[in-house]
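User: Could you go from structure to sequence for me? I need the amino acid at each position, not a summary. Structure tokens:
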């Protein structure tokens, strides 16, 4: 390693990332703070996250200890700032997409639970560890990630994995950098030998030659020869109680070191891909609302109402001058670009190319939320690829270009603007396509050649690079409207009872044996519906969203007993052997919950209750073994208590019926069903809803 790069890591300093540091950096990262301030904030955030900024000659910002193995280069920090300064509306990947990418790259997610949900658990534990020790150097990254997520529109609380869906959290390249580097720092803090298999990332032939000899310092020393070694090292390092528990839930606990090593290897591949995306094109995209926000729906009898979303690529005049000052190419930047060129990857456009190439750029639009409140129309938009909702951008200056999307606001029901006021949201996503990116074949060749990956992994990496490449931005339009008459309220309840008790007698070795298996499972669920919203009307069908508060109690007991006799001690002496085990699980959940009412004009209806998250519960496990005879007696056993989360049988149910025409404002009914092969389970549902 060159002396300057070695120095960049040796100059790592111990910094205490207090909460005010997080607040200060988040404030400096906002676009209003100015572009130069944004770049400086990114470099300081990376440094506190263990990543030094190095220009090929000297360290610009030293890393806080323990330092990660990779470095940032100045141009990379400019690209990260261009996106992060609009964190409220920007993001390259959702958490759900990150989960899919990590699964493709080898993360051994537990089956049965979406990867994005398991990442939610890990982020929650990560952030809670940061809250528990806010002044520790390793706490900066989770606290800063929590702050950035809270600035998103709509905001996300990483410390509460149940408060948002994985699709709702958008991640910028800066957050991906910090998350991957955090675990790399844990490895660096330990005593594992440096990887001897760097050729996993840069092939030996290219790796030994300039300029890739210099570029390798930017990639970092992230891939170890044995994933198990890495897992053991991380498990023994500074993993707090919250993260340790979350890793256990995700199947990456202390007893699953090999899985942990594989997961972290996948994470670092993803982190390296995000670095490649950052240096491969530093184009900023922002979306603004060009109408009233919030906007109130019109009546069906009133004129058409439109709202505009404007996507802008580029900077204003003041920011443009600051950008040019920060764009002076460094030696490290040139080495990285030249190394990528050896892989056949051409230089791609950046903001300096807006004025020259804007006519070839386009924006692809998508409404990701709020279709009942707004929709895209062809007659008021200039889509050159209507089926893909894509439009060309128009140059505004030599450093900015834009595209405008108009959406129709749907009308509120009723003859006048009366009733309670409700609020919905329309969320638009814009993805900027600059000059045509290299083909997936070009990226596959780069991954297999200079980057030294196998065919299958190279194909996956190339696909995800193309997914992350277009900058994306979002805007949220609040839509208010009056709730029409016809709101529903009332109670839905569900009980679940299972009781099984089987005893089998057998003859083992001429001595009788008796085995008993018993199980009791009960749930009591109630949803108190307070009000409803008419979401959409399609032909003869209305869809209402029922809103209310739910309560669930959960109990389950499993018993196993076995009794046998056998000869022991001396011939002819018989011993009675009794073994029993019992697991009792109790839990409960309370909180807001919704249901969906589909109502036909003829009176037929169907109600679907939303599913609940996993229910927190306490499990008590105990077992005992008694062995008795005339010449010996042994009593052994144990009892333990643990916290766990269980899946409830109650929510997620569907029931249907038909309204009595004599009582058109009443939905009422019940059913009782026997389930299981032996009719040992009873499920009972009752409902009573009244229209206001």
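Assistant: Here is the amino acid at each position, in order:
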């Amino acid at each position: 390693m060159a002396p300057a790069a070695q120095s960049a890591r040796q100059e790592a300093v111990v910094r205490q990332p207090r909460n005010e540091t997080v607040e200060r950096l988040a404030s400096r990262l906002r676009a209003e703070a100015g572009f130069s301030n944004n770049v400086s904030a990114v470099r300081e955030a990376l440094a506190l996250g263990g990543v030094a900024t190095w220009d090929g000659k000297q360290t610009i910002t030293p890393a806080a200890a323990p330092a990660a193995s990779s470095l940032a280069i100045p141009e990379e920090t400019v690209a990260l700032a261009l996106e992060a300064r609009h964190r409220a509306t920007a993001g390259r990947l959702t958490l759900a997409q990150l989960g899919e990418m990590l699964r493709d790259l080898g993360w051994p997610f537990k089956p049965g639970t979406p990867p994005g949900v398991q990442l939610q658990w890990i982020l929650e534990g990560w952030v809670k560890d940061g809250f528990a020790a806010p002044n520790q150097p390793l706490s900066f990254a989770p606290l800063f990630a929590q702050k950035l997520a809270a600035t998103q529109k709509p905001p996300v609380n990483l410390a509460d994995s149940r408060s948002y869906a994985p699709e709702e959290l958008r991640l910028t390249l800066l957050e991906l950098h910090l998350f991957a580097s955090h675990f790399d720092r844990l490895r660096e803090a330990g005593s594992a030998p440096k990887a001897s298999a760097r050729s996993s990332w840069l092939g030996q032939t290219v790796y030994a030659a300039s300029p890739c000899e210099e570029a390798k310092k930017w990639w970092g020393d992230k891939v170890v020869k044995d994933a198990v070694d890495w897992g053991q090292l991380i498990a023994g390092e500074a993993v707090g109680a919250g993260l340790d528990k979350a890793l256990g839930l995700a199947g990456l606990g202390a007893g699953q070191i090999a899985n942990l090593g594989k997961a972290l290897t996948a994470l670092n591949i993803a982190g390296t891909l995000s670095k490649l995306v950052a240096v491969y094109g530093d184009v900023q995209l922002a979306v603004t609302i060009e109408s009233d926000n919030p906007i109130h729906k019109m009546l069906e009898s009133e004129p058409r109402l439109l709202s505009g979303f404007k996507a802008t690529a580029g900077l204003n005049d003041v920011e443009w001058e600051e950008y040019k000052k920060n764009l002076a190419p460094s030696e490290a930047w040139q080495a990285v670009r030249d190394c990528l060129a050896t892989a056949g990857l051409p230089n791609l456009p950046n903001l300096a190319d807006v004025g020259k190439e804007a006519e070839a750029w386009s924006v692809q639009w998508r409404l990701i939320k709020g279709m009942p409140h707004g929709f895209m129309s062809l007659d008021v938009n200039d889509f050159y690829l209507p089926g893909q909702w894509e439009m060309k951008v128009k140059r505004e200056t030599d450093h900015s270009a834009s595209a405008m999307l108009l959406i129709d606001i749907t009308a509120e029901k009723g003859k006048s603007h009366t009733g309670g006021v409700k609020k919905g949201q329309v969320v638009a996503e814009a993805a900027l396509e600059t000059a045509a990116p290299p083909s997936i074949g070009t990226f596959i060749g780069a991954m297999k050649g200079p980057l030294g990956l196998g065919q299958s992994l190279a194909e996956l990496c190339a696909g995800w690079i193309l997914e992350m490449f277009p900058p994306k931005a979002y805007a949220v339009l609040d839509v208010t409207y009056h709730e029409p008459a016809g709101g529903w309220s009332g109670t839905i309840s569900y009980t679940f009872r299972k009781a099984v008790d089987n005893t089998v007698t057998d003859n083992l070795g001429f001595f009788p044996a008796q085995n008993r298996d018993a199980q009791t499972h009960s749930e009591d669920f109630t949803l108190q519906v307070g009000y409803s919203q008419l979401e959409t009307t399609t032909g003869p069908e209305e869809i209402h969203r029922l809103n209310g508060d739910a309560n669930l109690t959960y109990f389950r007991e499993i018993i196993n007993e076995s009794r046998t006799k056998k000869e022991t001690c001396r011939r002819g002496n018989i011993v009675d052997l009794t073994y029993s085990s019992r697991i009792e699980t109790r839990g409960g959940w309370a909180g807001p919950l919704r249901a969906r009412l589909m109502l036909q004009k003829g009176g037929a209806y169907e109600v679907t209750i939303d599913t609940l998250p996993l229910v927190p519960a306490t499990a008590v496990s105990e077992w005992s073994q008694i062995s008795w005879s005339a010449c010996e007696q042994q009593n052994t056993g144990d009892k333990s208590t643990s916290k766990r989360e269980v899946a409830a049988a109650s929510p997620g149910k569907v029931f249907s019926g038909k309204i009595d025409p004599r009582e058109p404002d009443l939905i009422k009914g019940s059913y009782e069903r026997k389930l299981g092969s032996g009719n040992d389970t009873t499920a009972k549902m009752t409902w009573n809803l009244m229209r206001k």
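One structural detail worth keeping in mind: Confidence is low (pLDDT under 50) at residues 1-14, 191-209, 222-228.
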